[in-house]
């Protein structure tokens, strides 16, 4: 184990150094070309502005990945970008949010806790957003100091948009809202009448406040259809644009001096790695991956290596495929903790040995005979190694709003097995870049796992990998999303709207201020007991 762990450590360190070198080189080139473009192109064609992002909790997840990619993409196009958030933990966020790539500022976080006695999360989230907006636009000069040509990018929570459009420091600035999915459809527990009554004002507020945005976009045609069915009046009045999330295609590109001996993959690759990347939430249906993997016979799990179709063994002498389950995990979130425990119990009940790693060192030291490995909140360098080492990526959520992970896998030449609903239907081409299967049919998922491990030749896997990489580069690159967003911001600047004219700005501000005052009062009474 000492020799193997040493090898893993070298792999990880070299991959990290390689990533940082490529990132530094890429930033230098991007700065040079951005400067050249600014000189060569007319100001009317390349208008520069300050884009202010408002995001509730800049942690690790699909929404946060989109926000970071959008911010970096717009920054590369010459805009100044500032990200305001109520929470950003350097230990639990994407690299760009902590390494200085983005200007991230935490505001509106000290007055209201994230929840009260573990409840009222939506109420507290709205109050924290109002606190953030008031902090930067009214209580300080921070927003004014960013300059006159400001535009806003808000997502997840629209409740603060009317207040934002009311305040003198921001009422003339165009506001763009990105709807990942209607929150009213994500809320659970509506079987109880009092929960339905509690959620009713927030459900109404969501649609009404979203209409205050100058432009609205969704993450897929699937989500646009859901929004149109949920809020038909909003869909009739507003043009719901589709802006696909993207990925940075440069992070998956090897430099010219990389050689075949570069340790950018894990030795587990030889025995067949089936990879799942998702947040530890029940709606992600990670249990499907475990059940499908358990359906493989011991002979099927042995698989074939990528060279010559011969069975391979891991460095420790144990042959067989391994299921790696990685993803966002926040110990503050009760569901993350509980669902991880449920998945461990499920693996054990199905006769699968399992282990959990919470640090890089722990991940590198997992014994070879473990069949299922849970990796909690892995850093980007290790995530990159996992993607490059995988034989197959399984993406289990049904009716996923979009799903960025399949794109990350396809960009690295990994076929994808995903649910035949939601966003993956728009990204994965069945039979060409991967497979789409009914999540209710576990045996169908097991059959695809067996096909990837045993029945497809290395050449066939490589063909699928090339098709997936080409599809991502042609349709879902970060440059394309940034260009789309830039065009939307230009359109908003040319034709501004003032929100629903029938309602007075003063009345709106008064109502929202009253709501904030109520939450602050409750928090001041209960806060010392629940929030140190």
Automatic annotation (TrEMBL):
Main location: endoplasmic reticulum
CDD domains in UniProt: GT4_ALG2-like
Reactions it catalyzes: an alpha-D-Man-(1->3)-beta-D-Man-(1->4)-beta-D-GlcNAc-(1->4)-alpha-D-GlcNAc-diphospho-di-trans,poly-cis-dolichol + GDP-alpha-D-mannose = an alpha-D-Man-(1->3)-[alpha-D-Man-(1->6)]-beta-D-Man-(1->4)-beta-D-GlcNAc-(1->4)-alpha-D-GlcNAc-diphospho-di-trans,poly-cis-dolichol + GDP + H(+); a beta-D-Man-(1->4)-beta-D-GlcNAc-(1->4)-alpha-D-GlcNAc-diphospho-di-trans,poly-cis-dolichol + GDP-alpha-D-mannose = an alpha-D-Man-(1->3)-beta-D-Man-(1->4)-beta-D-GlcNAc-(1->4)-alpha-D-GlcNAc-diphospho-di-trans,poly-cis-dolichol + GDP + H(+)
Recorded metabolic or biological pathway in which this protein acts: Protein modification; protein glycosylation
Domain Glycosyl transferase family intervals: 261-464
Pfam families listed in its UniProt record: Glyco_transf_4, Glycos_transf_1
Residues annotated as domain Glycosyltransferase subfamily 4-like N-terminal: 60-249
GO molecular function, one term: GDP-Man:Man(1)GlcNAc(2)-PP-Dol alpha-1,3-mannosyltransferase activity
Intracellular or extracellular location(s): Endoplasmic reticulum membrane
Keywords: Endoplasmic reticulum, Glycosyltransferase, Membrane, Transferase, Transmembrane, Transmembrane helix
EC number of this enzyme: 2.4.1.132, 2.4.1.257
Purpose of the protein: Mannosylates Man(2)GlcNAc(2)-dolichol diphosphate and Man(1)GlcNAc(2)-dolichol diphosphate to form Man(3)GlcNAc(2)-dolichol diphosphate.
Protein name: Alpha-1,3/1,6-mannosyltransferase ALG2
The organism of origin for this protein: Lasiosphaeria miniovina
């Amino acid at each position: 184990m000492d020799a193997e762990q040493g090898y893993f450590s070298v792999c990880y360190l070299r991959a990290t150094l390689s990533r940082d070198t490529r990132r530094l080189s890429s930033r230098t080139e991007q700065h040079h070309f951005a400067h050249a473009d600014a000189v060569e192109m007319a100001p009317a064609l390349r208008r520069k502005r300050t884009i202010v992002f408002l995001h509730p909790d800049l942690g690790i997840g699909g929404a946060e990945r989109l926000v970071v990619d959008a911010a970096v993409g717009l920054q590369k196009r010459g805009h100044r970008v500032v990200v305001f958030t109520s929470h950003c933990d350097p230990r639990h966020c994407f690299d760009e949010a902590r390494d200085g790539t983005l200007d991230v500022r935490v505001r509106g976080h000290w007055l209201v806790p994230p929840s009260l006695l573990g409840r009222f999360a939506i109420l507290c989230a709205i109050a924290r957003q109002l606190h953030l907006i008031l902090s930067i636009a009214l209580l300080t000069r921070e927003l004014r100091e960013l300059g006159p040509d400001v535009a806003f990018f808000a997502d997840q929570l629209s409740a603060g948009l009317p207040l934002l459009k009311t305040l003198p420091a921001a009422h003339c600035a165009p506001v763009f809202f990105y709807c990942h999915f209607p929150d009213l459809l994500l809320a659970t527990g509506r079987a109880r009448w009092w929960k339905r009554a509690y959620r009713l004002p927030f459900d109404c507020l969501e649609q009404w406040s979203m209409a205050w945005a100058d432009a609205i976009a969704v993450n897929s045609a699937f989500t646009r259809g859901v929004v149109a069915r949920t809020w038909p009046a909003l869909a009739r009045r507003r043009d719901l644009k589709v802006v696909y999330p993207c990925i940075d295609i440069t992070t998956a590109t090897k430099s010219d001096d990389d050689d075949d001996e570069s340790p950018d993959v894990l030795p587990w690759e030889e025995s067949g790695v089936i990879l799942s990347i998702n947040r530890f939430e029940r709606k992600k249906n990670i249990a499907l991956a475990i059940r499908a993997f358990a359906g493989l016979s011991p002979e099927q799990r042995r698989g074939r290596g990528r060279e010559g179709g011969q069975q391979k063994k891991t460095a420790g002498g144990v042959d067989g495929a391994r299921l790696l389950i990685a993803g966002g995990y926040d110990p503050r979130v009760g569901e993350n903790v509980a669902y991880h425990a449920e998945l461990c119990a499920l693996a054990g009940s199905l006769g699968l040995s399992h282990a959990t790693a919470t640090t890089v060192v722990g991940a590198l030291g997992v014994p070879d005979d473990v069949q299922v490995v849970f990796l909690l909140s892995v850093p980007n360098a290790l995530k990159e190694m996992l993607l490059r080492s995988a034989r197959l990526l399984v993406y289990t959520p049904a009716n996923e709003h979009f799903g960025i992970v399949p794109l990350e896998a396809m960009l690295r030449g990994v076929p994808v097995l995903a649910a035949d609903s939601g966003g993956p239907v728009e990204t994965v081409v069945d039979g060409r870049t991967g497979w789409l299967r009914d999540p209710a049919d576990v045996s169908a998922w097991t059959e695809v796992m067996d096909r990837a491990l045993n029945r497809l030749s290395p050449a066939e896997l490589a063909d699928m990998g090339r098709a997936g990489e080409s599809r991502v580069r042609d349709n879902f690159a970060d440059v394309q999303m940034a260009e789309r967003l830039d065009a939307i911001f230009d359109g908003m600047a040319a034709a501004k709207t003032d929100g629903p004219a029938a309602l007075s700005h003063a009345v709106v501000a008064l109502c929202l201020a009253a709501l904030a005052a109520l939450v602050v009062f409750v928090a001041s009474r209960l806060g010392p007991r629940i929030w140190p």
